[in-house]
Amino acid sequence: MEKRRILLLMTMAIALSLISLWIGQLSYGWLPPQGTTEAILIDNLFTFLVSLGSFIFLGVTGVVIYFVMFNRAAKYDWSDGPAIEGNVTLEIIWTVIPILLVFWIAGYSYQIYQQMGIQGGHHHSHQSIDIETVTTVDKPFETIEVIAKQWAWIFHYPESNITSTELHLPIDQRVHLALRSQDVLHGFYIPAFRVKQDMIPQETIALEFTPIRQGNYQLTDSQFSGTYFATMTANVVVQSKEDYETWLKKAAKQTPFLADNQAFSEYNQQSPKMIKTGWPSITPAQPPLVNYQ
Questions:
Q1: What number is the average pLDDT over the span 134-160?
Q2: Cβ(116)–Cβ(200) under 8 Å?
Q3: b (16+ CB within 10 A) / e for 145-163
Q4: Fewer CB atoms < 10 Å away: N or C end of the chain?
Q5: How are beta strands 186-190 and 215-221 bridged, if at all?
Q6: Taking the model in full, what pTM does it have?
Q7: Cis peptide preceding 279, ω within 30 of 0
Q8: What pLDDT is attached to residue 272?
Q9: 74/282 Cα distance (integer angstroms)
Q10: 169: which residues sit within 8 A by CB, 6+ positions away?
Q11: What pLDDT does residue 276 have?
């Protein structure tokens, strides 16, 4: 009987491992398409955590079901269970295993962070930097200035002297962004790229990544920045190097004009009221002069 139970538990453990790995593979479909090399690394870490979490959840649930089925008291048995004072071996096991799991997760997470740094991932600097003197392991294709303000994203390409409300990026080329906030905290977040960086007023923060999939993506502000926070979005276009160069030349020929800004327009369309209702709001920043929108 004892051997049969041990065999049953081993079979359950193997089945549980296979099911957890399957759920982990399914988790790839829960996320947006992988738009950067960094996204692949992050998704691998996410899948690992989902698989491990599934194993623990299903394992605990399975143990509970097992004891309910094979170790429940007989009907009308209201007697107390055996008085067990302690089990040193069991206490050591349930202490050591979580510690090892924590070190495993921490080690793998740090390994992913290191790989992202080597491949040109997150290069963070929470100090003011000079854009012209930033150096990294591999020279980026181009430095793009990203300016956030209430409530608009502005992208400036210093080499071409182009300003746009869309972020255009060449595929398979490492890009270096110099992030700046003109007023309050903002958050640079592109879900498909798996990159997120808080932007601190009066500081320039560097961020690097490599786009690998052509298409249109959306940039959002991950920090609540005020009344018109929902309008704080921008298009991100990843295109071939040839199309990117063509876009730069086309935009450079455009005469600068005032960009459309939803927050600014909505604020100025408000009708004056005798009695003020709702939350007060600051005046949105003036729409920027851009070559392309």
A1: 77
A2: no
A3: bbbbbbbbbbbbbeeeebb
A4: N
A5: antiparallel
A6: 0.75
A7: no
A8: 61
A9: 70
A10: 144, 175, 211, 236, 237, 238, 239, 244
A11: 60
